[in-house]
Amino acid sequence: MSDDTHKATRPSYTRRTYLLDREFQLKYILLLAGIGAGSVAVFGALTHRLHATSVDTGVGAGDSILWLTVLGSVGLGALLGLFGLLFTHRVAGPVHVMSLYVAALAAGRYPRLRPLRKKDELKRFFDRFSEAVDRIRQREADEAHALEGALAALKPVATTPEAREALETLSALCTRKRQAVDNPTASTFKSVA
After folding, report:
1. What are phi and psi of 55, to 5 degrees?
2. Maximum Cα–Cα distance across the chain
3. For 96-129, what is each residue's pLDDT tens digit?
4. 22-57 and 62-106 helices, crossing angle to 10°
5. Which of 109, 88, 103 is nearest to 192 (CA)?
6. Alpha-carbon gap, residue 146 to 139, rounded angstroms
């Protein structure tokens, strides 16, 4: 029964746009297609040459083609593995750094954001993230300034113990906001370079 209610509440939609970040996706689609096509072309050319040579000399080329296929498969696997390592490093590095920044934000600190490396991916996302952090930091600074003004105006008229306690709470909140905004987290994050 719970499966039926889960399926009933789930919205049904179909994604029609597959190229969400056209530049990023096409770059790697074309690169992978190029690696695959280039590898098949090299393998085909070598196989054709081996076959033509074996026909000319009258020697069978079955074992040689098998070894060429094995070598081509291993070579392509190694090439794609190295490409995967490079690509994931260029994506995982920025994601790792941003996750450290999010952890600092969750702890109430505003990190000093360093720029990404030259060849890192996700730069537009990181720029938006940086802009959001700057806006949140500015809003905190504005709120701290407003609290300082309210504290200054209310301090002379706070005569009851409850009013003074409320002012102390507001003062602590203001201090916390000021410390978070004025003392951003130093660059204690490990570089992923």
Report:
1. -70, -40
2. 110
3. 999 999 998 898 888 888 899 998 999 999 999 9
4. 170
5. 88
6. 10
